Structure formats: structure tokens, C-alpha cells
Amino acid sequence: MSTDLPPMCGPEEFETLLAELVADTAPRLFAVVEEYGERVDARVVGWGLAYADHVDVIGLDGGVHLGTKPEHVLRRFGRHDRVSARVIWHGTEPA
After folding, report:
1. What order of strands is seen across the sheet that includes strand 83-89?
2. Which domain of life is it from (predicted)?
3. Domain ranges of the chain
4. Largest CB tally within 10 Å, which of 8, 30, 44, 78?
């Protein structure tokens, strides 16, 4: 893209446009939680970012997991007897 073009608008309007761009493209944050037994205990085992077309998860053990949907990375977690994994979206009210 050429940088020789004149500004598209004034500085204040451009700041507003940039803020809208960031808000529109920001990924959603979620945690991967492992649950032990039937409501016996739980722990966060990773944090993920959901983009429009993929997700990235960083496990607390340092592993990186990629997928097309948050649920697709769950097969990497909760792989022990009576341990299950699920996605919890950050910023939503608890049930």
C-alpha cells in the first residue's frame, strides 16, 4: 500500500476508526478447564484466543495447541480416567 496518499481524515476521527478496527478484530479469551470426577475439583490447564477462523491455546505446561474451534483442542486435555476438559469463556457471568 502506498504511503504517499493524503490522510483519509483528521487525527481524532482516525483514532476512532482505529479503536473500532481493534474492537472488531479482537479475539475472544477462553480458558481450558479440567474437571476431576463429578464436581470434585477443577483446574485451569490452558488459555486460548479464538479468532474468526482459528484458535490458539497455550497450555500452562508450555504446550501450544492450534485448532479451528475451541472444542477441537480439548482432545489434548482431560485424557485421564474421570478427568474431562471443557471451554470456559472469560468475561461471561458464572451460571
Report:
1. 64-67, 55-59, 41-50, 28-36, 83-89
2. Bacteria
3. 27-89
4. 30
